[in-house]
Amino acid sequence: MRFSCIISAIGLILLTASVSAAELYKWVDDKGNTHYTDSPPPSSASEQNIEQLPGINGYAAAETEPRAAGNNAALTMPEVIMYATPWCGYCKKARRYFQQNNIAFREYDIESSSSAHRRFKQLGGNGVPLIVIGKKKISGFSVARFESLYQP
User: How many whole angstroms separate alpha carbon 8 and alpha carbon 114?
Assistant: First the structure.
């Protein structure tokens, strides 16, 4: 009886470790070196060399300089994170809008990553996409709503 409890505890620990390991990036730098990291690759990595492992998707905008206002003062745009699913039409619309407008974003698939699903629920998510812009969030996707919140 005691032995089976120990085996169960070890199994639980291994299961927890494998869930937390699901959020990884594999990418190749311009020198051909392969990297495995838990954070997105630097903007110097070319997009086609980035392999997004289960639970994580992302898009690094080609623009590397901060956007500037009319008076040439550099502005820092807020980070954009989208909790989504692959089949969601509004998620696809948001992805397309971000890419067409050169907006860098990080995407978490709430169906393939339990930690992404947990964060989604902690943020009050009950439908996709849930988009976090800096410290603000919106449920669903509307260009007008997004643009009203995506400001330095």
Answer: 20
Which strands sit side by side in the sheet containing 56-59, from one edge to the other?
A: 56-59, 105-109, 80-84, 130-133, 136-139
With bands split at pLDDT 50, 70 and 90, how would you rate the model's confidence at 73?
very low
Residue 6 confidence (pLDDT) above 80: no
Sign of CA dihedral 144, 125, 58, 93: negative
Q: What is the DSSP letter of 119?
A: H
Tens-digit pLDDT profile for residues 18-69: 444 344 555 566 666 655 555 556 654 444 334 444 455 555 554 434 444 4
Q: What are the distances in angstroms from CA 96 to CA 17, 46, 66, 71, 93?
A: 34, 19, 21, 30, 5
Fold of 56-149: Glutaredoxin (3.40.30)
Q: Which of 4, 71, 56 is nearest to 26 (CA)?
A: 56
Query: Residue ranges of the domains in the chain?
Result: 56-149
pLDDT tens-digit readout, 118-150: 999 999 999 999 999 999 999 999 999 999 999
State how far the Cα of 90 lies from the Cα of 136, in Å rounded to an integer.
Answer: 19
Dihedral of CA atoms 59, 118, 28, 88 in degrees, nearest 10, equals -40
